[in-house]
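U., I forgot to send this yesterday:
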Amino acid sequence: RTVQKQRRREYRPSRFVLSRAGRSKLTGGEMSAMTSASGINAFVGFRPQNGVKRASRVRASVARRVANPIVAVATPSGKKSANEGEKNWSKVEYIKENSDFLRHPLIEQLSTEDPFISEDAAQLYKFHGGYQQDDREKRAFGAGKFYQFMMRTKQPAGTVPNKLYLTMDDLADSHGNGTLRLTTRQTYQLHGILKNDLKSTFQAVIRNMGSTLGACGDINRNVMASPAPYAKNFKPEYAIAQELAKDIGDLLAPQSGAYYDVWLDGEQVLTVEKPEVVACRNDNRFGTNFEGSPEPIYGTQFLPRKFKIGITVPGDNHIDFLTNDIGICVVMKNGEHVGYNVYAGGGMGRSHRNNDTFPRLASELGFVGKDDILYAVKAIACAQRDYGRRDDRKQSRLKYLIHAWGVEKFKAVTEQYMGKAFQPLADLPPFTMPTYHGWNEQGDGKLWYGVHVVNGRLRGDAKKALRAVIERYELPVRLTANQDLLLTDIDPAWKADIVATLTAAGIKDASEIDALDQISIACPALPLCGLAITEAERGLPDINKRLRDIMNKVGLPADEQFLIRMTGCPNGCARPYQAELGFVGDGPGSYQIWMGGTSNLLKLAEPYADKVKEGDIETFFEPIFYAFKTGKNADERFGDWANRVGFKAIKDAQESYKGLPAAAKAAAAPAAVPAPAAAAVPAGRLPRVMIEREAFEVLKAYAEANNTTLTEAATAAILKLKK
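Result:
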């Protein structure tokens, strides 16, 4: 391995000369990177000066591209800059350009006495691994926003060393809000950090085998991979995927040293990388790099928008790999690793009432050999860097570039950056979505245990019990894409004690958890996310319980399972557009309903209804679930049924529904419980009851301390009145 030193470098940001890119024709199967996209008539680009020059040793097609400015912004027809010499950039692009590679004004803002940082500094803080937030529920009257900070780590493949887990657990109590959040991209989020504690929090993570660099911002984010900790000689494809996740994370990590200037005051830090990673980053045979720049791949502008990569293995789609900008699948042949299938252009984010934004699954690019995968990833990232739009951030993701250009054009341009053509995709077996719950054999004599964590939030007794067993047995940990936790490298002799410790803290085995809850996920949403317009993490447990009650009422089996996901806004962090049933916040207490995703996560859901009120869940879903129960084929899942019968048939069933037939009511009623003589309230959602603020705060504190929902806490408190 090569040891590289990240050192502080003084570097003056490049100025850029703008120009209009012309068109060129396909020649000999090659396409100049300056070719305009379909439906796009003009580009505004940039060219580095002041000694930051492009390589001259490139193929003829790439030489033509280098002779012109590097394309940075695609300007749609009819939206040309008023002044042809002006850069048609969004505000964030200027912040990046003037930041000295993500240093200023963040360094200065962190030293002020204000409880917040400026908007420009907040944009740069994202690249370092977090967001400035406002707790809407802690605002004091007339005092304005209640500022605090979220920090997100980078954990390639969700791997967490024992030392880092204990550090994060400590920081949650000493610097955060007492909880640890496991994300849908296999990372930690620490909420509730005050500005005065930011530096010490980051320093603790960096010095204990962790990093946050690039966890947010216009950059490659955490690289996901199937996290199952199988031994290399048992199921080697998993170890291959996990190792590649780390290598890609190293390849696309920022190189300027700004991260250490900001958080360690310029202290030198050693990073260890494979020689092949360093060689790929420095390779400029095909004009991919900014030579002489502290950021050879990113330059001063980094990427146009967030960039996500996921790596899976044949048959295992736990990570939703096609929802990423780059999706990769390990390819094995006769037990030997031969290469990778590569896909590009996935992404979940969209905006309500903006049909130019949409979720998209990644498209097939082709197969590459195992020695070419880093170059393929770098080529795709550089194509997005040079051609992704920088004028409109809602159109800046790679999926919109591929949608505008078409897959074949994007593939041809990427091949120029790579210096090699993609081969036809290798055949793969059918995919499923494993949960990794429960006790499993690693294949090396050790066990792993998959712990279900409700919407990824660790708190109270459950957090303490997990800390106890992880510390007692020095266990490494894996974070999953379903917000769960894998305790790994467990000696079978420890199993009984681990089970007893977790059970005493109220942590249930997966077999004891409702089938809906086992695989549902939600984003944090209110009160901290600035984009949230309604509940998600706090709302989904109650919604799931109500949905199960409806399913029981119409006679569906108690173990009927389908994939439910919820977000508090349309950005799609919990990937609701891949769910069999997705809830997407579209107003206070209101959701857009998506249906038709499949359990193998290979088909997008589609929008079914808008503005479904949280209070109308029962009346909205009862006709749908009854139609599903009476019309589904044997073993047919909800998403497959919705696709087969179509939305029109489902809406017709809703409109014609007159309530359960008498026979269905009798069949659904529990045999041992006689029906009440009369209902005290109409069927459906019970009336709301207002309580005083002081009582609510007590209830909320109790729920958090006992790792339960507000509904369950309130129910327990009220039932005590009967005694």
